[in-house]
Amino acid sequence: MTVEILTMQDVEAAARAVSPHVLRTAQRVSPGLSARLGCQVSLKLEMRQHSGSFKTRGAFHQMLALGDEALSQGVVAVSGGNFARAVAYCSGILGVDAIVCMPENAPQGSIDATRDYGATVELLPDAVAAFARADDWVNRGRTALHPFDNAEQIAGNGVVALEIMRDCPTMTDIIVSIGGGGLIAGVISAVKALRPGARVWGVEPDTAPTMRRALDAGEIVNIKPASLSATLSAPFVSQAALDLCRQHLEDLILVSDLDMIAAQQYFIQQEDLRPELAAASTLAAAERIKDRLPAEAQLVLLICGCNDSAQAVAGYAELLEASDAQP
User: Domain check: are 31 and 176 in the same one?
Assistant: First the structure.
């Protein structure tokens, strides 16, 4: 699937459409991180969005754009994580029948949350089987929703950038995590339209470098992600995201799983937040680029979700402790 590059009008239209249904999430300056990184640092707490991630904005926009007739036939989605939760939440609010095809190895917390929000969950052996099953449902009349390679999803994601710039009108830099690229595409579309001089930085795991591989190859590349962060483990990025990153991304920072875990623990211990690894990756990237940020910089870290389970977070902390104990 290929989507056109979005305009500011697309993002503003998405904002009008979804505003009755989503939260305007908080943004706060972090004195601790400002001192640590040597410039003003603000945290956009999108982890407090309905369903626990930014995905809800785009999922609402996709569904609302379909119209009543298509929605009456039901929707189907494939996801092992945050998009599953978002589709289930949105379909419950809008009264839409939703089926989510999930791989059997999806986190149990995401499976349970998707069911609790009211969607029907079908578990398949793997992602390939899940997509094949979704295709069957589309052939029966349902509309497929895509987690990142969809114009409405990207425009909905871009609404978070509008809020960020309103809350920090002097923002100079923003760091955004990259999975399939839907979030970075939406953020770039909004930021470069309203604040063309601001720098947008991307971050992804060094064991799931989908955008890095695509930028190096000059085209979309399919990979086999191996990161602990399920939400940063898309096998490819969208063409729209690749095009926007090629043109506008300041730099793409690769971080390790242990880097993300260390950042996650900092948020837990120092900021009283428990972001998922994908969200914590923005701090891990900021640590890498702090020497490239002038003292007058106004940096925003987009904290995109919070859906790692308590059990997973505890396991990550044990891995970090074990690594620190190594000679």
Answer: yes
CB environment 236-261: b (16+ within 10 A), e (fewer)? bbbbbbbbbbeebbbebbbbbbbbbb
What is the model's pTM? 0.94
Q: What is the dihedral of CA 220, 207, 257, 271, to 10 degrees?
A: -10
User: What dihedral do alpha carbons 10, 95, 149, 175 form, nearest 10°?
Assistant: 70
Do 277 and 179 sit in the same domain of this protein?
Answer: yes
How many Å apart are CA 188 and CA 101, to the nearest integer?
30
CA distances in angstroms from 303 to 79, 98, 128, 159, listed in the order given: 20, 27, 29, 14
Task: Specify whether 39 is located in the same domain as 88.
Answer: no
Please indicate, yes or no, whether residues 199 and 318 belong to a single structural domain of this protein. Answer: yes
Helix (H) or strand (E) holding 286: helix 277-289
The single residue listed with the structure tokens 């978002």 is: 86
pLDDT, residue 326, reads 55
How many Å apart are CA 320 and CA 100, to the nearest integer?
33
DSSP reduced 3-state for 136: helix
Domains held by the chain: number: 2
> How far is residue 88's CA from residue 63's CA, in Å, rounded to a whole number?
11
Token pair, residue 33, equals 């991180």
Cα distances (angstroms) measured from residue 30 to each of 45, 125, 326: 12, 43, 32
Q: Which pLDDT tens digit goes with each residue over 138-196?
A: 999 999 999 998 999 999 999 999 999 999 999 999 999 999 999 999 999 999 999 99
> Within this chain, do residues 170 and 39 fall inside the same structural domain, yes or no?
yes
CATH number of the domain enclosing 137: 3.40.50.1100
Is residue 53 classed as helix, strand or coil in its secondary structure? strand
Mean pLDDT value across residues 205-231:
95
The parent domain of residue 320 ranges over 8-54+150-324
